[in-house]
């Protein structure tokens, strides 16, 4: 696993540990889902349902694949090797990427405007300066928009263990606030 990928995984774990107790459990996913859906108030019910299902699948996949002792929690040691295994986790990430990027396009024009992107990523828990750096790394158009497809691909790249120098690395870079 590349160092860049390891940093991305550690950040994702910390974000999914919404209540900060050092482990991930289903309540964390419920809290995250609520925050993201609240930020997506302009999205239709279908997009919200897809996001809810993607978060549910993310948790179910983690719990099924990793919770061998049945304690209902995922530790960082359990999370780290699994989440970057494309064969085990790729379909879950693909569903998540498609749902989140679609949530950012409530008008269905295939484009995501910066304010909604920032709102959704802030709801997940990323730092605002890093969110803006990520959006800029995607190369927005003159009207400060990126495509849904670009964001979905960027999310999938974020979870690839052999990727470095990707737009998503902006999320783990230290930024002045």
């Amino acid at each position: 696993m590349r160092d860049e990928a390891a940093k991305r995984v550690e950040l994702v774990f910390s974000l999914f540990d919404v209540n900060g107790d050092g482990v991930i459990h289903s309540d964390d996913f419920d809290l995250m889902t609520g925050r993201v859906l609240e930020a997506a108030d302009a999205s239709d019910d279908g997009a919200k349902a897809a996001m809810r299902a993607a978060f549910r699948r993310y948790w179910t996949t983690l719990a099924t694949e990793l919770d061998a002792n049945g304690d209902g929690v995922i530790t960082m040691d359990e999370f780290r090797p699994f989440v970057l295994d494309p064969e085990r986790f790729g379909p879950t990430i693909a569903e998540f990427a498609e749902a989140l990027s679609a949530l950012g396009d409530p008008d269905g024009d295939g484009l995501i405007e910066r304010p909604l992107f920032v709102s959704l990523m802030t709801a997940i828990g990323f730092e605002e300066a890093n969110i803006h750096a990520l959006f800029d790394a995607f190369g927005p158009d003159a009207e400060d928009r990126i495509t849904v497809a670009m964001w979905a691909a960027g999310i999938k790249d974020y979870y690839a263990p052999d990727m470095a120098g990707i737009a998503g690395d902006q999320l783990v870079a230290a930024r002045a606030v």
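The chain has eight helices and two strands. The mean pLDDT is 90.
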